[in-house]
Amino acid sequence: MRADGRAPDQMREVKIAVGAVSNADGSAVVSYGATVAVAAVYGPREMHPRHLSLPDRGVMRVRYHMAPFSTKDERKNPAPSRREIEISKVLREALEPAVMLEQYSRARIDVFIEILQADGSTRAASLTAASLALADAGVYMRDLVIGVSAGLVDGTVVLDLSGIEDQYCEGDLPVGYMPNLRQFTLLQLDGTWTREQFLKALELAVRGAEYVYQRAREALKGKYMSIAEEVYGS
Amino acid sequence: MASISPYGKRFISYLRREQIRRLVAGKYRVDGRRLDQLRDVEVRVGVISTADGSAEVRLGKTHVVAGVKVGVGQPFPDAPDEGVLVVNAEVLPHASPYTEIGPPDEFAIELARVVDRGIRHCGYIDSKSLFIEQGRVYVVWVDLCVINDDGNLTDAANLAAVAALASAQLPAVAKEEAGVRLDRGRRAKMPVDPGRAPVAVSVCKIGSVLFLDPTFEEELSVDGKVTFTFSQDRIVAVQKTAGHFTYQEIESALDLALKGRDALLSALRSALESPGAAGQ
To answer: Which domain range does residue A52 map to?
Structure first.
């Protein structure tokens, strides 16, 4: 029995809102339970400095950052920590395979993610938010990348670790998955896992990602439905 | 601070990249190795006389030195009876034409964190033996210096860190009026369990072909790279860096990595059994 009463293969409540940051080219707010991530995309736009631009493809800039008030107990120092630097890199490498960067020569696409509330699985929620923000911006993508976490709690493989589970678990496995292409683009693990537990966690993560993907599709369609209503009437 | 696509910095010519990719598709490699074959591994311990523990690893032309320094400090609030481990890595400007002077970049930070992750949870270091007294514990600093980068830094750096810790010594603690002082004249062995040594093995993918121990050029030509760290029969860390993998490819990569682990473990064992291994 999990701390919040969920079944092992049950995600927390997933809420998605697309287009909330009006100045951004695309944006999304995604929450998994009490974890809230807001992503904003600016781009494609010119690459500065020019010497880092590429003649045949676009460059992505991805920033993951936690708001100082986002953590449970102590205030998080706003200076970028090594963890945030690693997660920014890992999220960029999770999004690049999905974005058709070859369509954006010499340009850059900026993806900014801020965690407003952290209660476990922040990089998973970030990845989903970033994908939706890119889609909302109209950036060409091969697929959405959905982030979910799996974990090992009291010897059981579970889906979507909450903050308290993350603190006390025997293992943590964040995943980024493209549901149509069936490819993992984010995969990390820590703790101690047997081979069987690892493979089972991957399967569970795929199911979780497929569930979140359906929610994500509805949210994106919802945006276009409301535009259609505005233009054509219901 | 943001993570930027690195292609403006490290690069490989299109022709060379395509040549490597074509060869691997035919299951050949530029240096004639098999897909599951590692380069020659050499591990030596006790190489830095000023450190409390040290090791140097040569994996082909990749060259990494790890140094251990022991200090005294405060424990983490959530583990008041355990010692503290800090792993840091620097890819020196010496290491390749593309590495610049400056604080550790995201590659170096990721490298340090992956090595740390493998060591931290597998029980390799007996952290409770590093407790001194209330509010005071041993702090074990592991610093990784990459001197030459010919690819596969993770496997080499992890091996160097593990070997340096295995051969490290803890200075004795001498209590004084003003606090404590470390006495390097009296030493004890660092409390490690060699049976749990974490070994990192990286697997790369070009098309659907998987292979081990990439060179610098091979790393720049891949469609995917994932590193598995093993301790005994468990997986203790995984880090996918480049690209994308299907579920089947991950399972195959895991099995290929298990094969590569044995070569690295035996290099570690011969280094620790050799005469110089007892420490400085």
So the answer is: 14-232
